[in-house]
């Protein structure tokens, strides 16, 4: 992803920061975020020190803290970090990009990145940086849109939505890249990670209308277990080998 696209992402999220949480503060949004967050929480150590890359307004950090851990958030949007500090006043937040993590080696027990990896300028460099700042035996968990038939048309939809001036927090043409299992496995292996687990989650999407969303939620456990090809978020967890 180009620097111009990264600047566009930063500017967009600076603009929507004050209203971003409204998107997740209703029935569909809360359920959607809670569902994918549960995958992340289960893959990360309890009561650890977490770095959340692309932390936004601190939604996942809040959940991790409630589960007993501590956390530092990193994001490229200054305005999103203003909101994050209001939500999680006891946590620290840093303005930086994912491929230049400004922390020392072996600083964290866990790293998370929720719905951000598709926007990262250099995904391999981000994972290299995550490996560096994780302590030996530390864990990483990533959840983002994956490359599947059901997501193939999303970039075109976002492009058209932007051209038509659709007022939507996420429907913007950012030139994001969606990853399949092989790409994710290669990226994580190249960074040095082990115990790599890759799967699919989410069938009830936040932008579904309520009757369909309610039905999709009921079907979600079956789809994720029996028909994962219909789920659209790819979920990856891995560990830095212990010394």
Regions with little confidence, pLDDT below 50 for 5+ residues: none
Helical content class: 40-55%
Structural class: alpha/beta
Strand content: 15-25%
- Give the helices and strands as they follow along the chain: HHEHEHEEHEHHEHE
Largest sheet: 7 strands, mixed
The strand count comes to 7
Sheet with the most strands: spatial strand order: 3-2-1-4-5-7-6
Shape estimate: globular
What's the number of helices?
A: 8
Terminal Cα span:
34 Å
Oligomeric organization of the protein chains: single chain
Radius of gyration: 17 Å
Mean pLDDT comes to 88
Question: What characteristics describe this protein?
Answer:
8 helices, seven-stranded mixed β-sheet, 7 strands, globular, single chain, alpha/beta, 40% helix, 243 residues
Structure explained in plain terms:
The model has no long low-confidence stretch (mean pLDDT 88). β2, α4 (78-87) and β3 (92-95) form a beta-alpha-beta unit. This protein has a 7-stranded mixed beta sheet with strand order 3-2-1-4-5-7-6, with helices on both faces. The N and C termini lie far apart (34 Å). α5 crosses α7 (181-191). The chain has helices at residues 3-16, 27-43, 59-66, 78-87, 123-133, 154-163, 181-191, 210-226; strands at 49-53, 70-75, 92-95, 108-114, 134-145, 194-201, 233-239. It contains 8 helices and 7 strands. With 243 residues, it is α/β, with parallel strands linked by helices.
